[in-house]
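Go through this pair.

…
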Amino acid sequence: MRRSPGGRRRSRDGHRRRRDHGRSATAHRGSLRAPPWAPGFLSIEGRKVRFTFGGARLAGCGGCELNTLGTGNIPPTTRPTQGAGMGRGVRIASCVAVVVLVACGSRVVPLNVNAGGIPGQPGVNPTGGPSINPTTGQTVGPGGTTGAGTTGAGTTGPGVLPGCKAPANPTDKGVTKDTIKVGLVAAKGGSFRGQFNANIESVDAYFKMINAQGGICGRRIQLFVRDDSGNAQNDLQAAKELAADVGVFAFVGSVSAPDSDTGVASVSKQEKIPDIGFPLTYERSESPFSYGVPGQLQKRLIGEGASGSRYLDKLYGIKQIAVFWVSEALVSKANAWAFEAAILKTGGPDMKICYDRETSVLDNNFDSYAVSMAGACSTSKGPLAVYTTMENNSNIKLAQAMRSQHVPVKVFDPTFTSYLPSFVRDDSGNPRPETEGAYMALPQIPFERCAVDSRNRPVPPCSHPELNKYVTALTHYVPGFSSPGSWGGPGWGEAALFVQGVEGCGANLTRKCVLEQINKINNFTVNGFLSPSTPRVHKIYTADLLMRIHNGRFVEVNPNDKSGPKEAPDFWDTSNLMDWWDFFCANKSRFSNTYRNEIDSFVTSC
């Protein structure tokens, strides 16, 4: 044990301990009603806020049971507690063209893929052998229903493509008549221990679900996981080893520290290996062989209403903004500057940047920043909104400083890296007063639409069919899973996109064919679960939904709004992409004197 900066005791893995304050509720077969303590929905009508608590039937759950694995009873570990909200246990991915997970210290559970002990399923091994073997267990069908299933090596059904049988001879590297080898490189250890667990576990669960159905044309997917510890050189070595020694067919689900996933990008491009993940370097996001889910970053492009900024600025009449980023990652800097450009454009000539600040993940106290911001952003200049592209711990410290220094903030809107239990509740499980009322934009159907177990993790039933399918697979195939946080949703989508490409090729599976099949896909959403993106254009998504913190929980803003894209109508906050480089070149005087020269050196088109 060791002490945290605040004096609380931590376990050896660096995660603060806390008590479980959950309460159980009773669920009935065929119907689940939100208990009185379940979080409600936030509806904004003009400036009026209406918050309605529990008592409402969970949409889409007619005939649902909490126990979807067929035992007929609700096991103790899957009873809903604290409502179907995130509370202290769920964290997911957020929207915006500024997806930055930068630093050490996010308080999440260390990786243990096999914590639940599925027989015959080895845990992750970063150095040798298949990290995760073909699955055993029950079939998870559409909507999260379960089939009869068998264990062991035998199939449980005709497979994803009934009647399709792989040829005896290999059709490409990493493919046999029985298997498809897939590699995943992630920052599991080092300073990033645990931050990408949800991505790995989601990919694992999806592939095990497919394997339990008999695979694709009889081929089961073997997942090989490697740890780069957030280091670019390790990333390159791991990617080379997976490509050359293991001989993987594709990379699926790879995600590492910003500026560290260049190895996967290099090997993928050199070997023409399909790479489906979430690129956090421009080298990877700009590769024709890499596909981000949902979408991927681009140097010049950002949504005009990124992170809900256009909606929020209009709602609160915002006239001045403050923007924070971290110095350790180029994508954090560049996307903060892109944020500024988007808000200045949509806010018109009266919108001002009153304060912007480059911080470090090593900064322990943000009070001086808050004092400077308060001085620069006087209330006489109009309502203030604060946006960040920082990681979670920095966002918490900023929120604490703004509260202690009485900064008059109307809107606080970090990116989805803070869609975490620790952002909304402290180590004792109490709501954080400093983050109360903060907003966050998501490109994924939120986990708040599910019940939760005694560990505050999402469990079936969930009101959205694909979310229910995802959570059912996760609870069954990776029973020791971490709360599916900032990267869980993208991980599920990455595996789904790969499988869709493989299905399109059928028995004659080649890398070239998978790339061709993926490039045919338009508006990929995983059945409306993710914000739409078209893989072949390699651009970020432009639709999201908004959450707001109320009493220590994430609550949907306008949950009944279905005005989004027809493929995913829940993502109602839509915008168009803009070229922020062009805007900067034409409006340099509107940007901060402090950072204008640095931005000018990054933007090469002026």
